[in-house]
C-alpha cells in the first residue's frame, strides 16, 4: 500500500514540475484554450467522447494540471473515423480541442504538411484547430484532392465532418500538379469563396480562370462542380464564346436534376447578344436489365440581320426526339423500341445556333431528311414465326414532303426445310419461306400534317410473298438451283376510268372494294468454278499465275399480267374514239406488275487473278499478290423481245496491286450500234440500231486510293529500337541517344484519293469529272498536330473545298484552329477547352461564318 502511494505522489510531483518547465509553444499555438467562441464555436459541454483517443509520438509531454498533452515528432491521433499525422500536436482534454502543425524548416515555415484523414478522405494542412466533439475547426493552407481535381485554399472553416468553407482558393484538374510533378498548375480557377461538400460537390462564388498564372476574360458568377460519380442536382458550367452571326454567347447553362434512381432530367439554356435564344430539355430514364431511353424537346428563336433593316428575319424552330431501347434480358420474345426524330423544318439543322462544327461534313448541318420509327416485335416460341408491328414517319426538308406508314404489320416465317431427312439431295435441300406485310400509308406535307383531310388520302394494302427453292449437284461439278416466287396482294380500292364528253376530261372514280391480284415467276441457276494455273519458273521472280472463274447462268420466266385473262387492266374510249387501257390498281399501295411476257437468260462471270512471286523474307520463300481481287461481268438476254434482246453489260471490280494502293471501278457497256441523225442541227437525235458490234463504253467510275505514313516507309519494322533511353522534357516524351540528345520520329499520314467519272450519251457527248482529295496530318512535336483536307476539281481547275486544322495538346487543355477558306461554308473557328470531363463545358469557342451559301445544300 505504501508503494502505491509513493508512485502516485511521484507522478503528481513530476506533472507539477513539468508544467512549470514546459517550453513555450510557438506564437500561433499559444492560448489555444482561449480561442474566441465566434471562431470555433466550441462551447464546452459535459459528457464523454464517443470513442477512445489513441495517440503516439516520439516525444510525449502531459500537463496534468492544465489537462494538456504535447506530441512532438511523427505524432499521430486516431479517433473514430479520423486520423491525424503531424510533426506537432496539442490536445486540450478539457475542451476536446486538438491543434496540429506540420514540420518547420530553418526559417520557421512549414516544409511538411500535416494530414487529416476522415472517412477515407485525405486533407493536407499547414496547421489546424479541431474540436473532436463538435467536429468544427479552423485550418490554414489546405490541399485536398477531389476525384479529378485539386483544391488549395489559404483559410478553411470546418463546419462539420463533411462541409468545409474555404477562402482564397483555387481549383485545377492539371494531372501533373495533382501528381506533384509540377509546383505550378498550367491552369486554375480562382475564387474567394468555396463550399466543399465532402464526396459530393464544390460550390463557388465568382470564379476567374487563370492560364499559366495569367488571368483570362473567362469570369463566371458562380460554379457547381460535382465530385462524385453519383448524380447530384445542380447547375453546371456553361460555354462562353463568340460567333459572327449571333455575337457573344453563353451556351448550355445547364440545370441537372436527378429525379430518382431511374430518372434524371436537365434543362440547358443559351442566349446570344443579337437576341437569339434556345432552350434544350432532356429527360433520361433507365431500369437495369429492362429498358432505357431519352426524351428531348428543343425550342429555338433565331434572329438574323438587324431589326428595321433589309435581311432581318426571326424564326422559331423546334425538335422532338425520343429514343427507347429495351434490354433483351427483360423479355427475349417481346421487344419494344422507339426512335422518333421530328424537326419543324430544315432551318433547325442549318441555322447558326447549331452549326458549331461545320467543318465536319457528316454533321447535322447537311441533314436533308429525317425518319422516325416505333416498333413492337414478337417472337413466337412454339412457332417458327416472328411478328413486327410498327409505325414510320419520314421527312424531306427540301420538298417538305412527309410520308407516314401506320400501321405497318410484318409477319415472317423462318426458312423451312420440310424434307431435310430425305436421302435425295433435291428433296433434302428443298426450302420454303413466307412473309406478309400489311400497311396503311399517306403522303402529305409539313403544313397539312395531322390536319383534317390528311387521313382521307390514306391507302391500305397487304402483300404475301412465298419463295420455293432447292439445289443439287449435276455431274459433280455443276450446282443446279431451281426456284419459284409467288406474290399476292390485297387492296381495298380500285379505280374506274371513263371519259366525260360534257366535261371533256377523263374521270377516275374510286371504288371501295376488296380486290386481290397475284404475280409469280419461275427460274433456275446453274453455276460452276474453273481454275487455271500457269507455272512460269520456280527460281524466277514470278513463279506462277492462277486464274479463278465463277460463271453463272440463270433463267427466269415471268408471265404477261396485262392480258384480259388476269383482269388487272380495263379499257375506256377517249375523245378520239380510241380504246385506252388502264391499270385498275393505279395509285394504289401496290400497282406495279409486269406488262410483258419475259423469258430472260442472265449471265454473270466472277474473276480472280493471283500471282505467286519470290520473297526471301516470307517463311516459305514466296508470297501471293492479288492482281484482280474481283472482276464481275453481268448481262442478260430476253427471248421474248423482237429487238435489242441483249441488255447493257455491267462490270465492277477492285484490286490492291501495290500495298496501300486500292483501285475500285465499275461501268456499263452498250453492245449495240447507234446512229446519229443530224438533219436537225439544233436538236440532233440518236437511234440505236439492232445490230451488235459497237460495245460503246457508256459510263465508267474509277477510284484510286493510296495511303502513306512514316511507319509504312520504314524498311524493317522488326528492327530493334535504336534508342534505349526514354524520357521527357516538361511533359513531352522523347527518345534519347547515347550523347543524351533528344530524338522524335515525326509521325505523319497522307491519304490520296483520285476519282474519275466518265459518261457518254447516245449523241456521243462525253462528260467527265476528275477530282483529287488530299487528306493528311503531321505531328511536329508530340503534342502539336497540323492537318489538312484539300479537294481539287481538274475539269474546272479550282479548289472546291479546303480544311486546315491546327491542334495542340496543352496538358490539361485541348486547343484547335479550323479554317475553310472556300466553299459553301467559308469559316474559321478557334477552340480551347479543358479535358477533364467534370469541366468539359468550360471552354472558349469562337466561330466566324464568313460567306454562308445556304443554296449549296
Mean pLDDT: 81
Low-confidence stretches: 1-47, 356-363, 851-857
* Overall geometric form: elongated
Distance separating the two termini: 106 Å
Rg (CA only): 41 Å
Tell me what portion of residues adopts beta-strand conformation: over 45%
Major pleated sheet: 27 strands, mixed, barrel
Number of helices: 5
Query: What is the count of β-strands?
Result: 55
Structural class: mainly beta
Instruction: Work out the helicity level.
Output: under 10%
Quick structural summary:
The protein is mainly beta and 857 residues long. It has five helices and 55 strands.
Describe the protein:
The chain is mostly beta strands. It is 4% helix and 60% strand. It has five helices and 55 strands. It has a 27-stranded mixed beta barrel. It starts with a helix and ends in a 5-residue tail after the last strand.
What brief labels describe this structure?
single chain, 857 residues, mainly beta, six-stranded antiparallel barrel, 5 helices, 60% strand, elongated, disordered N terminus
Amino acid at each position: 500500500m505504501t508503494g502505491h502511494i509513493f508512485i502516485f505522489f511521484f507522478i503528481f510531483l513530476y506533472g507539477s514540475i513539468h508544467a512549470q518547465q514546459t517550453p513555450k509553444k510557438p506564437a500561433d499555438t499559444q492560448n489555444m484554450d482561449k480561442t474566441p467562441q465566434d471562431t470555433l464555436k466550441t462551447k464546452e459541454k459535459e459528457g464523454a467522447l464517443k470513442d477512445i483517443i489513441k495517440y503516439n509520438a516520439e516525444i510525449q509531454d502531459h500537463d496534468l494540471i492544465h489537462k494538456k498533452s504535447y506530441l512532438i515528432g511523427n505524432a499521430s491521433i486516431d479517433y473514430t473515423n479520423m486520423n491525424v499525422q503531424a510533426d506537432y500536436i496539442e490536445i486540450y482534454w478539457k475542451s476536446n480541442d486538438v491543434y496540429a502543425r506540420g514540420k518547420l524548416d530553418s526559417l520557421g515555415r512549414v516544409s511538411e504538411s500535416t494530414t487529416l484523414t476522415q472517412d477515407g478522405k485525405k486533407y493536407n494542412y499547414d496547421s489546424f484547430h479541431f474540436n473532436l466533439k463538435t467536429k468544427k475547426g479552423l485550418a490554414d493552407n489546405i490541399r485536398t484532392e477531389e476525384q479529378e481535381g485539386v483544391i488549395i485554399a489559404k483559410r478553411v472553416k470546418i463546419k462539420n465532418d463533411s462541409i468545409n468553407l474555404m477562402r482564397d482558393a483555387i481549383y485545377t484538374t492539371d494531372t501533373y500538379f495533382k501528381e506533384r510533378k509540377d509546383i505550378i498548375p498550367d491552369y486554375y480557377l480562382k475564387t474567394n469563396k468555396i463550399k466543399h461538400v465532402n464526396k459530393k460537390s464544390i460550390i463557388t462564388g465568382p470564379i476567374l480562370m487563370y492560364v499559366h498564372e495569367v488571368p483570362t476574360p473567362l469570369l463566371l458568377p458562380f460554379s457547381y462542380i460535382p465530385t462524385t460519380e453519383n448524380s447530384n442536382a445542380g447547375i453546371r458550367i456553361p460555354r462562353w464564346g463568340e460567333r459572327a452571326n449571333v455575337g457573344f454567347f453563353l451556351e448550355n447553362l445547364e440545370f441537372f436534376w436527378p429525379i430518382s434512381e431511374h430518372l434524371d432530367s436537365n434543362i440547358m439554356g443559351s442566349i446570344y447578344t443579337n437576341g437569339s435564344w434556345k432552350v434544350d430539355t432532356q429527360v433520361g430514364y433507365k431500369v437495369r436489365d429492362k429498358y432505357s431511353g431519352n426524351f428531348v424537346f428543343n425550342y429555338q428563336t433565331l434572329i438574323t440581320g438587324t431589326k428595321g433593316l433589309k435581311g432581318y428575319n426571326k424564326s422559331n424552330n423546334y425538335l422532338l426526339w425520343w429514343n427507347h431501347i429495351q434490354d433483351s434480358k427483360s423479355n427475349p420474345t417481346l421487344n419494344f423500341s422507339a426512335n422518333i426524330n421530328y424537326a419543324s423544318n430544315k432551318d433547325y439543322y442549318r441555322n447558326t445556333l447549331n452549326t458549331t462544327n461545320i467543318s465536319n461534313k457528316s454533321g447535322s448541318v447537311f441533314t436533308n431528311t429525317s425518319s422516325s420509327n416505333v416498333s413492337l416485335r414478337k417472337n413466337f416460341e412454339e412457332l417458327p414465326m416472328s411478328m413486327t408491328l410498327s409505325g414510320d414517319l419520314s421527312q424531306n426538308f427540301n420538298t417538305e414532303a412527309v410520308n407516314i406508314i401506320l400501321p405497318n404489320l410484318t409477319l415472317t416465317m423462318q426458312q423451312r426445310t420440310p424434307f431435310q431427312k430425305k436421302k435425295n439431295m433435291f428433296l433434302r435441300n428443298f426450302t420454303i419461306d413466307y412473309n406478309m406485310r400489311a400497311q396503311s400509308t399517306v403522303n402529305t406535307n409539313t403544313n397539312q400534317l395531322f390536319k383534317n383531310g390528311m387521313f382521307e388520302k390514306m391507302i391500305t394494302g397487304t402483300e404475301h410473298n412465298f419463295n420455293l427453292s432447292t439445289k443439287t449437284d449435276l455431274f459433280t461439278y455443276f450446282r443446279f438451283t431451281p426456284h419459284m416466287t409467288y406474290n399476292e396482294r390485297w387492296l381495298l380500292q380500285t379505280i374506274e376510268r371513263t371519259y366525260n364528253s360534257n366535261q371533256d376530261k377523263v374521270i377516275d372514280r374510286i371504288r371501295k372494294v376488296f380486290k386481290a391480284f397475284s404475280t409469280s415467276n419461275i427460274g433456275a441457276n446453274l453455276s460452276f468454278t474453273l481454275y487455271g494455273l500457269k507455272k512460269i519458273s520456280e527460281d524466277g521472280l514470278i513463279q506462277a499465275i492462277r486464274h479463278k472463274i465463277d460463271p453463272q447462268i440463270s433463267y427466269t420466266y415471268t408471265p404477261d399480267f396485262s392480258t384480259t385473262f388476269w383482269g388487272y387492266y380495263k379499257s375506256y374510249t377517249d375523245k378520239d374514239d380510241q380504246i385506252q387501257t388502264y391499270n385498275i390498281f393505279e395509285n394504289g399501295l401496290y400497282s406495279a406488275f409486269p406488262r410483258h411476257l419475259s423469258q430472260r437468260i442472265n449471265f454473270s462471270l466472277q474473276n480472280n487473278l493471283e500471282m505467286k512471286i519470290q520473297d526471301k523474307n516470307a517463311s516459305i520463300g514466296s508470297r501471293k499478290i492479288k492482281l484482280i481481287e474481283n472482276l464481275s461481268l453481268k448481262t442478260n438476254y430476253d427471248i421474248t423481245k423482237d429487238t435489242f434482246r441483249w441488255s447493257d453489260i455491267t462490270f465492277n471490280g477492285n484490286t490492291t496491286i501495290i500495298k496501300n494502293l486500292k483501285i475500285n471501278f465499275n461501268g456499263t457497256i452498250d453492245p449495240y450500234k447507234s446512229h446519229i441523225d443530224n438533219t436537225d442541227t439544233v436538236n440532233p437525235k440518236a437511234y440505236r440500231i439492232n445490230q451488235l458490234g459497237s460495245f460503246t463504253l457508256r459510263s465508267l467510275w474509277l477510284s484510286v486510293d493510296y495511303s502513306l505514313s512514316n511507319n509504312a516507309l520504314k524498311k524493317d519494322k522488326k528492327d530493334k529500337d535504336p534508342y534505349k533511353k526514354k524520357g521527357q522534357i516538361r511533359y513531352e516524351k522523347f527518345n534519347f541517344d547515347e550523347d543524351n540528345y533528344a530524338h522524335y520520329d515525326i509521325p505523319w499520314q497522307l491519304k490520296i484519293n483520285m476519282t474519275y467519272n466518265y459518261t457518254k450519251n447516245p449523241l456521243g457527248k462525253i462528260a467527265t469529272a476528275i477530282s483529287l482529295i488530299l487528306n493528311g496530318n503531321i505531328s511536329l512535336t508530340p503534342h502539336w498536330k497540323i492537318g489538312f483536307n484539300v479537294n481539287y476539281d481538274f475539269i474546272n481547275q479550282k479548289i472546291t473545298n479546303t480544311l486546315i486544322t491546327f491542334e495542340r495538346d496543352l496538358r490539361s487543355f485541348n486547343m484547335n484552329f479550323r479554317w475553310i477558306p472556300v466553299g459553301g461554308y467559308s469559316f474559321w473557328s478557334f477552340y480551347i477547352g479543358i479535358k477533364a470531363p467534370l469541366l468539359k463545358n468550360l471552354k472558349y469557342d469562337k466561330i466566324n461564318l464568313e460567306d454562308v451559301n445556304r443554296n449549296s445544300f
